[in-house]
Task: inverse folding
């Protein structure tokens, strides 16, 4: 029986951090057992708001690939591929732009929020505005039916399916499958400073390559409950970053629930819960960091992994493009 196809990936704008591990990487390790998984190094998407610094995108392709391999992504079971070297994706993107209006792109809630967050105003890069069509090309080119995304990204999958339905209706047959968004249970981790979004560039994340000293310093700086001034005082769990991280990484849920109750009724200091979290993160990151250091000494292996995966992905995506062109009755040489 063929395995369901899953497509996921990351923008190579910086090394990955523990938020990526909690929200996606840990799930990808499981998916490679049960799915045919493609991991896209989305360098073209990264350029939609980094076109002024292409060198940043270029150098981080290898950094993100290193993170994939370091956490245990197996290139024999997961295809790691580079978006810019898959020409069928660009060709399908151009085709799909004829099946969506500018008004619909502007109404996409994810795009609206991202435009607001980046302060584009009306100076929106066309590539950024058209990203939903480009993502539809990514998804459909692999004929992926399972797409892990954050809850805020779900409208993009809805728009992909709208494009799929229009293409299929025009072709008169189901040449493309619809995709299903899968929302990770962990959700998005806040930054260590308590801000809603952990950012690679914002200085509020713990990279997967963090040293033990960096981990310790980050945990010590974490936002807890500003009203918890004395150990005997009752503390708040909601909005407490340390407990949010413990929810994501602490596997002993029974002990964690007792710690929460103790903290809420008073008598438990912030230092104790931070010590627990630091121990957990040190144990999680140490083997990833070691493996990353080992792999980074063999650049040929990393580059060969990307090249070989991209070749596999190129064959898949070119075949889909030919099917779509034929189904739509476009001229072929």
Result:
């Amino acid at each position: 029986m063929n395995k369901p196809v899953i497509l996921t990936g990351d923008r190579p704008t910086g090394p990955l951090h523990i938020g990526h591990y909690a929200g996606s990487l840990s799930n990808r390790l499981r998916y490679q057992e049960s799915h045919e998984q493609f991991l896209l190094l989305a360098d073209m998407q990264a350029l939609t708001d980094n076109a002024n610094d292409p060198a940043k995108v270029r150098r981080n392709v290898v950094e993100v690939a290193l993170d994939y391999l370091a956490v245990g992504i197996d290139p024999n079971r997961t295809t790691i591929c580079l978006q810019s070297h898959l020409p069928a994706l660009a060709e399908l993107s151009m085709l799909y732009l004829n099946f969506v209006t500018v008004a619909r792109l502007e109404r996409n809630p994810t795009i609206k929020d991202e435009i607001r967050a980046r302060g584009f105003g009306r100076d929106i890069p066309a590539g950024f505005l058209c990203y939903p069509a480009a993502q539809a090309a990514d998804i459909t080119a692999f004929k992926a039916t399972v797409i892990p995304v954050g809850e805020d990204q779900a409208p993009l999958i809805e728009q992909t399916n709208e494009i799929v339905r229009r293409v299929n209706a025009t072709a008169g047959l189901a040449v493309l499958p619809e995709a299903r968004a899968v929302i990770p249970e962990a959700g998005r981790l806040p930054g260590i400073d308590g801000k809603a979004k952990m950012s690679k560039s914002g200085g509020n994340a713990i990279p997967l390559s963090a040293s033990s000293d960096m981990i310790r310093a980050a945990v010590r700086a974490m936002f807890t409950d500003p009203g918890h001034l004395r150990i005997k005082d009752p503390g708040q769990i909601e909005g407490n970053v340390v407990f949010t991280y413990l929810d994501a990484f602490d596997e002993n849920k029974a002990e964690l629930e007792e710690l929460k109750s103790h903290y809420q009724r008073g008598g438990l200091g912030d230092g104790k819960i931070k010590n627990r979290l630091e121990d957990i993160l040190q144990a999680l990151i140490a083997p990833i960091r070691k493996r990353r250091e080992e792999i980074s000494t063999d650049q040929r292996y990393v580059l060969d992994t990307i090249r070989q995966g991209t070749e596999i992905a190129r064959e898949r995506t070119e075949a889909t493009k030919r099917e779509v062109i034929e189904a739509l009755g476009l001229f072929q040489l």
